[in-house]
Amino acid sequence: MMKQYPHNARVKGSALLPNRFIFGDAIDEQGLEPCEYVVHTESPAFICRLVGNDETPFDGDDQEAFASAVLFDEADNVSIYVCNQGFRLFDFSFRDLVPTAGELQGICDDAMRIYLQLQEIYRERDADLPAREMRVFPIKPLPPGERAAAVANLKSLAQEACERPVSKLQLTGLVQQTMAGGDQAVLTEAQLGLLSMPPARELLLATARNCIAFPEVVRKDGSILSFELWAMPFAFSRAQGGAWWHFPMMERAEPVLADALELPPKATLWMSPTAFTIEMLNERACQDLVHLAPVMDLGCDYAPVNPEDARATYEAARQTKDPRLMLAFIPFLVERGTLSQEQARRHARKALDAVMPFVQDAVGAEMEYGEAELFAPLPWWEALAGGVGGINRKHLSLTLALAVAHGGRVSELRAEAEYQPEHQAYEVLLYRIGRDEAVARLPWLLVPDVAPDRARAWGDLSHCLAEAGIPLAERLSRLH
Fold first, then answer.
1. Distance between CA atoms of 240 and 469, rounded to whole angstroms?
2. Contact (CB, 8 A) for 447 and 285
3. Domain assignments of the chain as residue spans, ordered by start
4. What's the pLDDT tens digit per position in 151-209?
5. Residue among 382, 424, 346 at smallest CA distance from 231
6. Is residue 434 very low, low, confident or very high in pLDDT (cuts 50, 70, 90)?
7. 44 preceded by cis ω (within 30°)?
8. CATH number for the 390-474 domain, one of 3.30.70, 1.10.10, 3.40.50, 3.30.200?
9. DSSP letter string over 394-447?
10. Model confidence pLDDT, tens digit, residues 23-74
11. 3-state class of 18 per DSSP?
12. pLDDT, mean of residues 349-374
């Protein structure tokens, strides 16, 4: 029989001893820490931090068999443990005895063996997830004659809808059909053909953006489901080339995210296992996003290309070294009217803390990555603008820090930027004033869109450099 303790009573009872090693996460003021913790409960007891994707060199790191070392960093006055499985243990906090380097290496070797077993158990458990059908929607260019006719029809209806608002519903249907057709050049050429008619062009682009941001699904029984498309930007570093985009375990975050955002109990929230990189969005001008809602309503996953071919390309690319900071967007659909921006803003921190472990597990199961940062959920177009703005500023701050580290001051720098349409970005070169040799370079990305706004990107770049006191000039590309 249970009875309550008096507040001043000593706690009694016996307990089973804990396991020798305990692995887990922790939360600090910024949210989920970007590392795991290892607790060694036996003597010498200690706690330390654990990270993966570590490439610290040591004697024997190229062996096929398991190898490890305990190293001392004189500059930072710290000891670390590394192994050729890509893991590093550091920030050792000993509770009683301080072991020798050999003793610590032996304990950490045991910890790594158990940790690897634990990861294998996780993988086997996750492999039990039923695979969902992939629906592939490749690019389907129309023959020149059909494309020209489709462009003319779209332009004509956009102009008509400007003059006769009753035609806006018809325009919405045609825009939806055009974007779902697989030839993104039709909408692109139509909006470019309306540059001399700004009202018609803006109506066409607004209609396209709304089709993506507020999708509707018509089911066979005639019922209509209305959604809103949201996303969480996900910035991550990679040492290898290529990037993967399909993460089946992402669906596990759905109930967690819905609960953290305090959606109504029966409200629908679907997280897309398909994430979209900047390159994927630019390649299709965001138009293929119209497929997300109907595909997910069928219980399937969206694929922009054949997954087997894409996987082979990725596996080849990941054999190369290409260190970089990347940005992807994790979309999710919510039932329209169940999530306001104020509600999302209010619960943003709770949502990030709750979802981040699931996102890390989902991405880590399919692709190696280093540091990662998940941004607050926002409606689709705001998420794109916020994510790209954040990654651009991070690129700039890192590049400026690198330039200053090689000698000189920020006030001694000037910048030149050249637009690169094939990358939907400006290439920014930094020079020391009075010199012609660039000391650093960085990309300044345009926000992906059905019609990316080059002027907006230039204005944002100019503003950021002006705040840093760096003069900017545009360099026009020369055609040879």
1. 35
2. no
3. 21-127, 136-213, 217-376, 390-474
4. 999 999 999 999 999 999 999 999 999 999 989 999 999 999 999 999 999 999 999 99
5. 382
6. confident
7. yes
8. 3.30.70
9. HHHHHHHHHHHHTSS-GGGEEEEEEEETTTTEEEEEEEETT--SEEEEEEEEPP
10. 998 888 777 788 899 999 999 999 999 998 788 999 988 888 999 999 999 8
11. coil
12. 92
- What is the Cα gyration radius of the chain? 27
Do residues 25 and 357 lie in contact, with contact meaning Cβ atoms separated by under 8 Å? Answer: yes
Q: Which of 425, 430, 401, 429 is nearest to 413 (CA)?
A: 430
Computed over every residue of the chain, the mean pLDDT equals 92
State which H helix or E strand residue 345 sits in. helix 341-346
Taking each helix axis as running N to C, give the angle between helix 198-213 and helix 185-193, from 0 to 180 degrees, rounded to the nearest 10.
Answer: 150
| Residue 6 backbone phi and psi in degrees, to 5 | -65, 150
Least confident of 9-13, 273-277, 321-325, 407-411: 407-411
Angle subtended at Cα 225 by Cα 156 and Cα 270, rounded to the nearest 5 degrees: 110
Residue 420 near residue 282, CB atoms below 8 Å: no
Q: DSSP class of residue 64?
A: S
Alpha carbons 150 and 76: distance in angstroms, whole number: 64
Say how far apart CA 429 and CA 375 lie, in whole Å: 28
CA distance 228 to 379: 8
Q: Under DSSP, is residue 12 helix (H, G, I), strand (E, B) or coil?
A: coil
Contact 138, 302 (CB under 8 A): no
- Token digits of residue 6: 């008096």
Query: Tokens standing for 16?
Result: 């089973």
- Rounded percentage of the chain residues whose pLDDT exceeds 70: 98
Rounded-to-integer distance, Cα 15 and Cα 370, Å = 39
Cα distance between residue 381 and residue 389, in whole Å = 12
> For a pLDDT cut of 90, what percent of the chain falls above it?
75
- Alpha-carbon distance of 260 to 263, in angstroms, equals 8
Other CB atoms closer than 10 Å to residue 80's CB: what's the count?
21
The per-residue pLDDT for 14 is 81
Structural contact between residues 194 and 155, judged by C-beta atoms closer than 8 angstroms = yes
Res 408 pLDDT > 80: no
**What is the distance between the alpha carbons of residues 200 and 193, in angstroms, rounded to a whole number?**
10
> Above 70 in pLDDT, residue 478?
no
- Model pLDDT, residue 480: 39
Q: What are residue 327's DSSP bridge partners?
A: 235
Kind of pairing between the strands at 276-277 and 372-374: unpaired
Q: Give the helix ranges, DSSP H, for 214-297.
A: 254-260, 278-283, 292-297
**CA–CA distance, 187 with 207 (Å, rounded to integer):** 11
Rounded CA separation 33/50 (Å): 11
